């Protein structure tokens, strides 16, 4: 068996791309199909879900430690940027947004949050836009919360605060004629 490039300890917070932030609650050895496997047992509190990941597959599925402070700063800076609205069909954009969220990349998730954010004075979002926005914002907030050791609502409020301030700057350019 190859040397483990990634190693997580019980109690570590980890990011699993498709599910977001979870915690390693135990290391298990199990026999599956006659083979001994070592597994990380991950607990995702928000989804009330437990996931078992073979230790030798952790890297290939994209499991990683929490982002670095530098990556977090970059993601929060991304939120302050001008929203990019593509003029492609919604179904195509929705697929791109979902792919970014499921990549587990904090900066990509921040781009989705920034691009789908609507301030109070902006037009209403469609149901599916709001669903994707909430999924991305929640994913970003959970990683921020784990890194700053606060709860998710506090982290989400910090994100929304940054977005509101940025929207005030970008929207003042669009003064009606």
TrEMBL record:
Pfam families: CarD_C (PF21095), CarD_TRCF_RID (PF02559). Residues 7-117 form the CarD-like/TRCF RNAP-interacting domain. One of its GO terms (biological process) is rRNA transcription. InterPro entries: CarD-like/TRCF_RID, CarD-like/TRCF_RID_sf, CarD-like_C, CarD-like_regulator, CarD_C. It comes from the Bacteria. PANTHER family: RNA POLYMERASE-BINDING TRANSCRIPTION FACTOR CARD, TRANSCRIPTION FACTOR YDEB-RELATED. This is CarD family transcriptional regulator.
């Amino acid at each position: 068996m190859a040397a483990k490039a990634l190693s997580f300890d019980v109690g570590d917070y980890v990011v699993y791309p498709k599910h977001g932030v979870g915690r390693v609650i135990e290391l298990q050895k199990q026999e599956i199909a006659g083979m001994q496997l070592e597994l990380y047992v991950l607990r995702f509190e928000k989804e009330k879900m437990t996931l078992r990941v073979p230790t030798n597959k952790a890297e290939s599925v994209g499991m990683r430690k929490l982002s670095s402070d530098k990556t977090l700063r970059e993601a929060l800076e991304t939120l302050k940027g001008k929203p990019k609205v593509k003029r492609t069909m919604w179904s195509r954009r929705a697929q791109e947004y979902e792919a970014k969220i499921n990549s587990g990349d904090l900066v990509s998730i921040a781009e989705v949050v920034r691009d789908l954010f609507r301030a109070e004075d902006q037009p209403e979002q469609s149901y599916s836009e709001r669903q994707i926005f909430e999924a991305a914002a929640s994913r970003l907030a959970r990683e921020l919360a784990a890194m700053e050791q606060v709860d998710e609502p506090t982290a989400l409020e910090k994100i929304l605060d940054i977005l509101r301030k940025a929207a005030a700057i970008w929207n003042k350019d669009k003064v009606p004629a």
